[in-house]
Amino acid sequence: MFLVILVQLLMHNVLVQSTETREAFISDTVILPCSIDPTAAGGDVIWRDEEEKTVADIIMGKGDFSDQHPEYRGRVQTFPNEIAKGNFSIVLSNVNTTDSGIYTCYAPKPVQRVELRVTYKRSSFQQHTVMYSFDSKRQWC
Ligand SMILES: *[C@@H]1O[C@H](CO)[C@@H](O)[C@H](O)[C@H]1NC(C)=O
Ligand SMILES: *[C@@H]1O[C@H](CO)[C@@H](O)[C@H](O)[C@H]1NC(C)=O
C-alpha cells in the first residue's frame, strides 16, 4: 500500500515538473539550474525554498533581492547574460546543511525543482542522517 502511494507520488512529480539533484559539501558554491524556453517564458521567475521562503526573484531580466529571506542574503547570484537565453539558473554560495531541501523555480508555474543535499565532508554518518531526514520529510509533502 505504501509502495503504491510512493509510486503515485513519484509519477505525479515527474508529470508536473522535472527534478534535479545537486550534492554539495558545506561551504561549497552550487548552481541551481532552471531553463525555460525563452519564447514561452513571460520573463519573470521566482525561486522559493520548500518553506516558500524567497531565495531570489528575477524580474525584467535582473536579479531582484528586495524580498529575499535573510537566510539567503548575500549568497545568491543570477547570470544576467544568460537570462535572455532562458537560463534562469542561480548560484548559491557558502552552503550549509540547513540549505538541504527542495528549491523550486516558478515562471509562474513550477518549472524546475532542485533537490539540494549538503553534507559534511568526511563523515558518512552525517551524510546518512541528512539524507534520511530529507527522505522522511518528503513522504509527507
Ligand atoms: C546557465 O548558465 C550557467 C552559467 O553560465 C551555466 O553554467 C549553465 O550551464 C547554463 N545552463 C544552460 C542550460 O545553458
Ligand atoms: C553550518 O551550520 C552550523 C550549525 O548551524 C554552524 O555551526 C557552522 O558554523 C556552519 N558552517 C558554515 C561553514 O557556515
TrEMBL record:
It is found in: Cell membrane. Keywords: Cell membrane, Disulfide bond, Glycoprotein, Immunoglobulin domain, Membrane, Receptor, Signal, Transmembrane, Transmembrane helix. Residues 27-119 form the Ig-like domain. GO terms for biological process: cell surface receptor signaling pathway; cellular response to lipopolysaccharide; immune response; negative regulation of T cell proliferation; positive regulation of T cell proliferation; T cell costimulation. It comes from the Eukaryota. One of its GO terms (cellular component) is external side of plasma membrane. Pfam families: V-set. SUPFAM superfamilies: Immunoglobulin (SSF48726). It is a single-pass type I membrane protein. Residues 1-18 form the signal peptide. This is Ig-like domain-containing protein. It comes from Hemibagrus wyckioides. The lineage of its organism: Eukaryota, Metazoa, Chordata, Craniata, Vertebrata.
